[in-house]
Amino acid sequence: MEESLTCDSIVTIDKCMNYQDEIDFLDDTAKNLLILDEFSAKAALTTVLLARKLDTTIDENRQRLIKRHLDFQRIVNGLAKTCKMRLDFIQTHLKANLETWICQQEGSFFEINELEVDDGKCWTSEEYDFEILDHHKIPTVFLKPDDAEIKCAIKEGIRYIAGINIFKTKKLNLRVKN
């Protein structure tokens, strides 16, 4: 398919270059043509019709060439989207399974906080999260429950905000080696 695209592209570009001579001729004719009688009127009509035919031919060639590229682009985008969706599912599914398994190991003799393989590693870290319990008790600073503002306050060490439950969660972190 690539070869035909390249070959068609070259042929279309070559045709357009050849059309330049015809367009130059039609342009000169249009600029210099004075309609004085039936003969010159017919010459003007012929020039207009030739220009329209050439315009249509060039546009048809352009559309045919571009359609192939757009179809190819659509196919590539579709394949990439399908692959990405499947890979996202694999990552989400296995990361959740890893988090569950690591949490199950807590308190056991072989508690795991880090796991390393040739391609990278994963580790657990604790972080605080929150849920709003009572909107009426939230201080005015946090009146508009802006997640970013609340998370910033928690990061700064605040562990109590009225109307908000702040709790610790475990998060699985992944790093891929280059």
Would you write up a description of this structure?
The protein has helices at 2-32, 38-104, 147-155; strands at 114-117, 120-132, 164-176. The longest helix is centred in the middle third of the chain and has 67 residues, at 38-104. Strand 1 (114-117) and strand 2 form a beta hairpin. It is of the alpha+beta class and 178 residues long.
Number of helices: 3
Head-to-tail CA distance between termini: 34 Å
Q: Whole-number radius of gyration?
A: 35 Å
Structural class: alpha+beta
What overall geometry do the principal axes of the alpha carbons give? elongated
The side-by-side strand order for the widest beta sheet comes to 1-2-3
Helix content: 55-70%
SSE pattern, N- to C-terminal:
HHEEHE
User: What number is the mean pLDDT?
Assistant: 81
Which percent range describes the beta-strand content?
A: 15-25%
Largest sheet: 3 strands, antiparallel
Overall tally of structural domains? 2
Q: Unreliable stretches, pLDDT < 50, 5 or more residues?
A: 1-5
Helix and strand topology:
Elements: H1 2-32, H2 38-104, E1 114-117, E2 120-132, H3 147-155, E3 164-176
Antiparallel strand pairs: 1-2, 2-3
Helix pairs in contact: 1-2
Question: What keywords describe this structure?
Answer:
single chain; 178 residues; alpha+beta; 2 domains; three-stranded antiparallel sheet; disordered N terminus
Concise synopsis of the structure shown:
This protein has 178 residues and is α+β, with helices and mostly antiparallel strands. It is built from three helices and three strands; from the N terminus they run ααββαβ.
